[in-house]
Amino acid sequence: MLVLFIKLILAHLIGDFLFQPEKWVKHKNKHKHKSKYLYLHMLVHVAALMLVLLFDTSYWLGFLIIIISHYSIDVLKLHLRTKKNSRWLFAFDQLAHLIVIALVVNIYAPYIATLKDLDYNTLLLLTTCIIGVTAMSAIVMKTIISKWKIEDKSDKEDSLEHAGAYIGMLERLFVFLFVILGFWEGVGFLLAAKSIFRFGDLSRAKDRKLTEYVLIGTLISFGLAMVIGLAYNYLFSML
């Protein structure tokens, strides 16, 4: 099962990323299903699948399912695509392809029925902690530091929209992962890396209040992630 999954993922990566030039993508976005590169793209997928499966005809059903579904998903994405939803469509497009691959693998090595054996208590605990590290911690931090009204006006115009929020969530997810894996060195490395990146901004600003504000926010962010990580480890040991 695992070998087949790896082979199908490899074929997908070859077709969707390795051998799909930007020129093809732009032409497909412009001409939709009439683009000649859409069909060249599908031929690449056909070739990639045949190669990774070593021309094994016993996989003909899975082969047809993947090719037909891939074409259908791509055409749907091209017709639904706008400048505003292109990123989301890319994510859903890749997710749809992965789901199809998973279903095809299940045809040859059934595993979906075994999902009932999963430890749902562990899954619920992990989901709860991830929500706590991301959404909940962001609100907690915003509530705590809202006491101070500090703005870094020098870089405000050059900042990416919502970049700070995304960076905060990602850093807390990394810290959470490091804690539950017991890799505390990773937490220290991440803290040091962030300090280095922020040093230039703070030194240019020459603003003690801003420095204190950033330091408080960083410590709260890391602290929340570590507490939630430790709580996960403790509760996991009791399940």
Primary descriptors:
single chain, 239 residues, mainly alpha, globular, 2 domains
Q: How would you describe this protein?
A:
This protein is mainly α and 239 residues long. The protein folds into two domains: 2-114, no CATH class; 118-238, no CATH class. Helices cover 79% and strands 0% of the residues. It has ten helices and no strands. Helix 4 packs antiparallel against helix 5 and helix 8 (163-180) packs antiparallel against helix 9 (184-205). The longest helix is centred in the C-terminal third of the chain and has 31 residues, at 208-238. The protein is globular. The model has no long low-confidence stretch (mean pLDDT 88).
How do the strands and helices of this protein lay out in sequence?
Blueprint: H1 2-18, H2 22-31, H3 36-52, H4 60-80, H5 86-108, H6 120-145, H7 153-156, H8 163-180, H9 184-205, H10 208-238
Number of helices: 10
Helix content bin: over 70%
* Biggest pleated-sheet summary: none
Strand content: under 5%
| Strands, count | 0
Average of per-residue pLDDT values? 88
The span between the termini is 29 Å
The figure for the number of domains is 2
Shape: globular
Report the C-alpha radius of gyration, rounded: 24 Å
Which class best fits the helix and strand makeup? mainly alpha
Instruction: State the order of secondary-structure elements, H for helix, E for strand.
Output: HHHHHHHHHH
Taking pLDDT < 50 over at least 5 consecutive residues as the criterion, the unreliable ranges are: none
